Amino acid sequence: MKRFRLLEIAGLSFVLSACGGNPEPLQYGPNPQLPQPHRGLLPNMTIAEPAEWGDQQPTVPQGYAIRAIATDLKIPRQTLLLPNGDILVAEGRGGGAPNLKPKDVIAGHIKAKGTSPVGGGNRLTLLRDADGDGVYEVRTVFAENLNAPYGLALVDGNLYVANQDALVRFEYRDGETQASAPPVKIADLPAAINHHWTKPLAASADGQFLFVGIGSNSNITERGMTAEVDRAMVWRVDARTGAHKPYATGLRNPTALAIQPGTDQLWAVVNERDEIGPNLVPDYLTAVREGGFYGWPYSYWGRNVDTRVRPQDPGDARQGLEMIGARAHRRQQHHDDIDRLIVDGFEIHRRLELHEHREHALERGEFAVRHGDAVAQAGRAQRLAVVECVEGVGGRVSGERCNLLGELEENVTLARNVCANEHRLLGEDVGQFHKYRTLDVFAAGAPSSP
Amino acid sequence: MAVIVERRYSTVIHPLHAVLLAGTVPLFLGAALSDAAYARTYEIQWNNFASWLIVGGLAFGGVALVLAIIDLCRADRRAAGIVLYAVALLSTWVVGFFNALMHARDAWASMPTGLVLSAIVVVLACVATWFGFCTPRIGGAK
């Protein structure tokens, strides 16, 4: 297999470490070691060869079982666990930003080798395990003809879906296997170019507001500043009127949003910039403060100015303060008890499919059963870890050894998006972007589950 | 007194070769000017233009280079000065290639090195073109 060292990767702040036999500084926690930016003549890019799971299964620790509950989906992205235990899977593939430079043409060909040839389903699939035996015997198309649906949220009988170009609402009644009516559009979402097309979604507990993540239209402004209007931010949308305002900005590519239960606190997993070295810039999970600016494109992880951006921002110092504030907030939150997590930090790996490849990103989330919820945070003992790793170095198939729960291990790929209730951790497998399957993980031995 | 001159050489380069060789100059020049415009305005489209113009220059120059090497390998055409021409063209192409890689960087990461390389490539392309047109060739005009 050919190896292309074309693009470089970053790591998840919490969660990043090296794997694949290439020791790199650990980049966990709120103060990761950040190397100096570096980029050779050719960026690093290693494309893993697509492969099928076949008879293989991800391995899980003792006391847990794992099984595929749905296969042959059409690019499943986010999943939503409905109150009755049904699972909704959003299937779609958006984007389609035009090539601008010769590099885009060449990189596009290379990256295509690592992506699934499957077209996006543009639909929501519902999976049901009526008798609770772990086999999801019912599979229906809940809604179709959507435009690359991604974010899902359910509040008070309203099922919100963030398509790549619009936020829509379905009415949902418990037990439905098919939407009873076509969706109602709440608001248009920024969709020009859609370099980062995924629109994650979270709803405030009272259902009044919806938070929508909008990724940037470039890696680092190489499509021009004007392409970045209304990008790299989180919108807060009034669910009733559709009116929106930027809630927080400078978030390069928020790929998952969640409201911390019992609070109004919004959290986001953010995908950071590429091509300044294999360990820059760490992706991060952060509490999102209203009005906060998180750096993109001008700087990363605080005051580290990204010299690739022109014109540079005159208010750099101010931004730094903002971000430090935000990080402090996150750090504080990080050590608090948080009942639930946004486990979709795993989104990180999607880059390969869409855009770029993280060479050896290792992610760890944790599955805390303590309050009957899941927590994906690093650095806590006695929590079950969700581990994911893209093994790109050497182009090995990363689906070979999957360790969804357990110790950090190299060469692990699985569980891109995870949601959980007290009994079950649901991992949506990308399996290196070619095996689009949804896997169900039973937390049979989970401590203190109700 | 009458002198009989046997014309062994023609100073006329083959038209195809000439077009390809001469074409490198405006292409690389356009790239350098685009780089300068990008550096002045930060308007990213200039950077895109430069990237494609460099690719164009490499394509033209690459074919011209092949033709030059063919000439070089054919003893009956290996006229004086052709080695110098081939070296100049090769240098143009190699530096141009590095420049293309430099321009594959995102946004301002290609600068200012990209602009400097572009300027060097323009000079090299001019030199190569000069040598190319001055180098006599065996065989005479078609």
Outline the fold blueprint.
The complex is a heterodimer of chains A (450) and B (142).
Chain A: E1 65-70, E2 76-81, E3 87-91, H1 102-112, E4 123-128, E5 138-143, E6 151-155, E7 158-162, E8 166-171, E9 184-188, E10 201-203, E11 209-214, E12 233-238, E13 244-249, E14 253-259, E15 266-271, E16 284-288, E17 299-300, E18 304-305, H2 316-335, H3 350-354, E19 362-367, E20 384-389, E21 417-420, E22 424-429, H4 431-434, E23 437-442
Antiparallel strand pairs in A: 1-23, 2-3, 3-4, 4-5, 6-7, 7-8, 8-9, 10-11, 11-12, 12-13, 14-15, 15-16, 17-18, 19-20, 21-22, 22-23
Chain B: E1 9-10, H1 15-41, H2 44-73, H3 82-103, H4 113-134, E2 137-138
Antiparallel strand pairs in B: 1-2
Helix pairs in contact in B: 1-2, 1-4, 2-3, 3-4
Can you walk me through this structure?
The complex is a heterodimer of chains A (450) and B (142). With 450 residues, chain A is mostly beta strands. Chain A is built from 4 helices and 23 strands. In chain A, strands 1-23-22-21 form a 4-stranded antiparallel β-sheet. In chain A, β17 and β18 (304-305) form a beta hairpin. Chain B is mainly alpha-helical. Chain B has a single domain (12-133), classed as Four Helix Bundle (Hemerythrin (Met), subunit A) (Up-down Bundle), CATH 1.20.120. Chain B is built from 4 helices and 2 strands, in the order βααααβ. Chain B has helices at residues 15-41, 44-73, 82-103, 113-134, and strands at residues 9-10, 137-138. In chain B, α1 runs antiparallel to α2 (44-73) and α3 packs antiparallel against α4 (113-134). The A-B interface holds A 39, 41-43, 100-103, 218-225, 275, 307-311 and B 42-45, 47-48, 51-52, 55, 98, 100-109.
Query: In CATH's first tier, which class of the domain at 77-357 in chain A applies?
Result: Mainly Beta
Mean of all residue-level pLDDT scores of chain B: 88
Largest sheet of chain B, if any?
Answer: 2 strands, antiparallel
H and E order of chain A: EEEHEEEEEEEEEEEEEEEHHEEEEHE
- Taking the alpha carbons of the first and last residues of chain A, their distance comes to 49 Å
Question: What gross morphology of chain B would you assign?
Answer: elongated
Overall morphology of chain A: globular
CATH architecture of chain B: Up-down Bundle
The main pleated sheet of chain A reads as:
4 strands, antiparallel
Helicity level of chain A: under 10%
Specify the CATH architecture of the domain at 77-357 in chain A.
Answer: 6 Propeller
CATH class of chain B: Mainly Alpha
How many structurally independent domains of chain B? Answer: 1
